[in-house]
Amino acid sequence: MDTLELIKLAGQGDKKARDLLVTENIGLVWSIVRRFANRGHELDDLFQIGSIGLIKAIDKFDTTFEVKFSTYAVPMITGEIKRFLRDDGMIKVSRSLKETANKVRITREILNNKLGREPTLEEISKEIDIDTEDIVMALESNAEVESLYKTIYQGDGNAIYLIDKLEQSKDESENMIDKFALKEIIASLEPKDQDIIRLRYFCDKTQTDIAKELGISQVQVSRLEKKILKTMREKLV
Length: 237
What we know:
mainly alpha; Arc Repressor Mutant, subunit A; two-stranded antiparallel sheet; 13 helices; 68% helix; 4% strand; RNA polymerase sigma factor; RNA_pol_sigma70_r2
């Protein structure tokens, strides 16, 4: 049975099909997880986070996308891990508290997907066999103390935020994955939509130029562009 058939069955509530999809894509999760080595977290923990991204990809994938499932799943898995690392907090706390907080986050996501709702504190406590008081303490100690959008400088009418001072880095492998996913999504568009994106973003044409070339109005081009970008965003995110 191929991947698309399994995804259709999983979408219909077939748990065996869903579990099989997860099993078949474990290698994909690990290949992404290894890129986040030496970030202060155990790879097993990141694997569980990545697996949550994989499950979300299975649940949200639309077979009409005309995109390979792996292409859709990669940014979902990567995004889940990045969000986890981003939200990990700025306070340095004891390793035991950090491990408890990480375990709570992972368990919460797993139970959320399993139950189809937000799990209660008691349910999380029972699942990981940790007292609710210890869970609360771990989460509070691991909370972020500064907003990334806190203004740290205001001058000439332009605010500089904390996030602007953080080093932004993106390795080549991430760029390759993003470009690959974008290429697949563009290829799945209708020919006319592909032309609009090509002319607008690869040939640097204005909406007026495109309107003349396609024989439609500038307003139509504007509406089509917004619609196409929305479609691409939904497929990519």
